[in-house]
Design brief:
The chain has 299 residues and is α/β, with parallel strands linked by helices. The chain has 3 domains: 3-77, no CATH class; 86-204 and 288-295, Rossmann fold; 207-273, no CATH class. It is 40% helix and 18% strand. The protein contains 15 helices and 11 strands. It has helices at residues 3-6, 39-45, 75-85, 101-108, 122-128, 134-137, 147-153, 177-191, 204-216, 223-228, 238-241, 244-252, 257-270, 278-281, 288-295, and strands spanning 16-18, 21-28, 33-35, 51-53, 58-65, 68-72, 90-95, 112-119, 140-144, 166-169, 200-201. The strands form 3 sheets. It has a 5-stranded parallel beta sheet. Helix 4 links the parallel strand 7 and strand 8. Helix 3 crosses helix 4, helix 8 (177-191) crosses helix 9 (204-216) and helix 9 (204-216) packs antiparallel against helix 13 (257-270).
Length: 299
Amino acid sequence: MKPHELYRPILKIPEGSCGAFRVRHLHVASGARLNTANLRCMALGGQPSEPVRFRKPVHFHELSEHGGVWMTDKPDEQAQANRLVSGLRGTVLVGGLGLGYGATRLAQQPQVDNVVIVERSEEVIRLVWRHLPRRERLKMDLVHDDLFAFLRRGPLEHECPRTYDHAYYDIWGGDGEDTFFHYVVPLLQLSIGRVGFRPRCWNEDVMRGQLRYSLLGLLGVPLTHLATAGHTEYTGNIFHDWKVPFVRWLLAKPRTAPARMREANRYVRTFGERPLPEELLRLCQPSELANQADHVGAR
């Protein structure tokens, strides 16, 4: 399938506002060039980019709150969602309705039986839900709730299953380290025992790319300095403390440079997937302020 066919708009949501939220159309002229990834996502997340041009004028959608963009369904965000929902099957938990693109793509996959969407904003539900494709909505169940609260207490038996085969989370607008520690990590922790396979999170690869650069910087620091400069002690600052287990491993015994590099990459790749030490767990909690400060204009 050619790019202009793969990334054509699949949603038909009218423009409108509800409370602080707004859906507006983004008009693209015929022949205009769009890309499936920007430079930041390419550099930090390794996301591939290809040009997309449409033979006819098209319009995409943008969801914003107080003027800050939460998401769009332009080709770059389509590509990001497509990669994450591809191959999922069975019953899939979706964190965040947004424009409904990810949920719609999931429902289009024959191996997906049920899509359970948790959305906390009544305004977003009013703007989007009834305009999603009717055929795909037959596979969907919508729960008006906060995702963190939903995962903590467990759903009611009559609403949806207590465990899920897969999960796809996208309840943030930015992809900085703050979002990683206060949204991605808590959701990964809450999903242990509730979701069969590791959840997939929007632009987590970009966030972990930032962590990787931060951690690799420590490999150039003399070990004697790491041991005496407070790098082995928890301080209550997550941006420092998440590195402490790795530094302690680094100082435990002599390591070759390749071994240190391999462990650094593994540590970044898997941080938050397994139960965390209490010192880190209490710092990785949802933060409304973190997301609001991070998301405006990020997408």
